[in-house]
Design goal:
This protein is an alpha+beta fold. About 70% of the residues lie in helices and about 10% in strands. A hairpin with a 2-residue loop joins strand 3 and strand 4. Helix 3 runs antiparallel to helix 6 and helix 7 packs antiparallel against helix 8. It is globular and about 65 Å long. It starts with a strand and ends with a helix.
Length: about 210
Amino acid sequence: MQFTLLGFPTRIDHSFWFMAIILGGAMADLRRALVWIAVVFVSILVHELGHALIARSYGFRPAILLYSMGGLTSWQMTHAISEWKRIRISVAGPAAGFLLGTVVILSKDVLLVEGSELAQWAVRDLIWVNIGWGVLNLLPVLPLDGGNIMNSLAVLARGKRDSRIPLYVSIAVSAVLCVLSLHYGMIWGVILTGWMAFSNFRSLQTLSKIRNPR
């Protein structure tokens, strides 16, 4: 599925819907499942729009992709920008989600005035996805927004770009999260954090080979 939203080319891969269903777990009620999928779709789209709007304000032409790992806002680096601007772009995604979640919280009494079960599900899911996931997304793990922020802060602190420290931190944090997810029986959390730990470990190996070729 492809369309343009606020001037941004947007594509939804079929794997996105599969991911949303898996994250919803075993929902026997079809209406409950549809509410969850709609909430995930809207929330991740709002998140990516946050990135895209700030990136466009810095002269880039972003495109949005929703896929199995969530969302991705990408653009060609037609010109250099400061690390502070990179941080603002990274923060804009979670900030958009926090804003939406806050609006839902403040409007909760109005949204639930009729006591609709669907409304209760939607409000609960919107708060969790936008606030809960937003906080998790700010953890210092690549490729999460928190990991990208950590990367930029490392450049500002060291005065040069060196991916090793962010990769080490990402591996350590994701490994701890993987163990915690396993302890609490969160299978999807085990898969996701395990993948992030492995992905960052491979990136560290690749970086080491480039730095120390045989």
